[in-house]
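User: New here, any thoughts?
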Amino acid sequence: MKRTITVTGTASAKAVPDLVTLTLGVETRRETASKAYDDAGKAAAAVATSLRAAGVQDADLRTSGLNLRADLVWVEGQGQKVAAYVASTNVRVGIRSQTQAGATIAAAVAAGGDEIRINGIEQGFADISPVTSQAQEAAWQDAFQRAAQYASLASARLGPVVSISQHPLPGSPIPMGGLLRASAAEALPIEAGESSVAASVTVEWELLKP
């Protein structure tokens, strides 16, 4: 039987992110369902128009999560009553310019007014492939060095690779905000910092005589 050694290597690579992903919410509360729905649509359209004017491409705009519900309250002696109707939707935005991110967000807040919410913001990469490749190469080197050390301790040497199994690990996005009611349209600074991408690889080598 062949002797083998199996080792898992892990590593990460860092780079300055070049993509800001913003999740905006639009929510309206009105006396009728149709009014809430119409006003939510108008607010969402105004936000989208402001984002396009700021340079955001159509491919980087996505609307999701359309919701219309009755806001019920309990009235003594009458039971549940409809207090208002609430319509909401989400807009996911990709901003590809770090320097313009703050101004772009401020423009969206100004366009949405009291109906807009900032549900989250994270920073990442428009093309993650180069950073992923760096992390994978470093993970391979980590596995190789570990395996070579163990082989030496076992009075053997590494032979051909028998199998490779890759286990990509998620990076760490930079969360900001969360269900915030925007009340001012002044641009807040968006600091890029660094984002990391992790990789893990399990490699099996044949063990040969020294």
